[in-house]
Amino acid sequence: MRATDPSALLPILDRLLAEIELDTDELQLSRPLAGLQMTLGDISRQEGNLSEAVAYYETAMNDAVGVVPSVVSALHEKLAEIKAELGDTESALHHLQALMALREESHERERQSIVEELEVRYKVEQRERQLEVMTLDARLQEAQLRPRFHHL
């Protein structure tokens, strides 16, 4: 397999993207389309076409928002870098703030998940201990009743 220059793929990918005239929500194609747009943006960025890369990344963002959080985070990071390179510090700051908010949301979800898991473990252990106590109580009562039945 021979290596292909990424810039040679750009026209092919653009044509492929233009041919897709489907309802992406209905067919659940937002994820692959966002990935394709992001790849096109990466190629444009490597070629030094920053404004073209921004256009691809912003289109990818529209496809990814609410569908692929990890792609949205990556796009905010890429857009912040490019906007800073272009001197658009206000937009770069906006993307960095959005990235930080997404990361904080992700960490909060992770923390909440850990808390819920610990709560479940605690309740299970608590139930197991209650069952152990009930079993020991039943054995104790049985042991106490045995001598009484032997006397009868």
Molecular structure report:
The chain has 152 residues and is an all-alpha fold. It contains six helices and no strands. It has helices spanning 6-19, 24-27, 30-46, 50-64, 69-85, 89-151. Helix 1 packs antiparallel against helix 3 (30-46) and helix 4 packs antiparallel against helix 5. The longest helix has 63 residues, at 89-151. It starts with 5 loop residues before the first helix and ends with a helix. Residues 23-27 have low confidence and may be disordered.
Report mean pLDDT, rounded to a whole number.
85
Task: Give a short account of the largest sheet.
Answer: none
* Order of helix and strand elements from N to C terminus: HHHHHH
Percent range of helical residues: over 70%
Low-confidence stretches: 23-27
**Beta content:** under 5%
How many β strands by DSSP?
A: 0
N→C terminal distance: 92 Å
Oligomer: single chain
Q: What is the overall shape?
A: elongated
What is the overall number of helices? 6
Radius of gyration: 30 Å
What is the structural class?
mainly alpha
Primary descriptors:
single chain; 152 residues; mainly alpha
Question: How would you summarize what this structure contains?
Answer:
The chain is about 85% helix and about 0% strand. It has six helices and no strands.
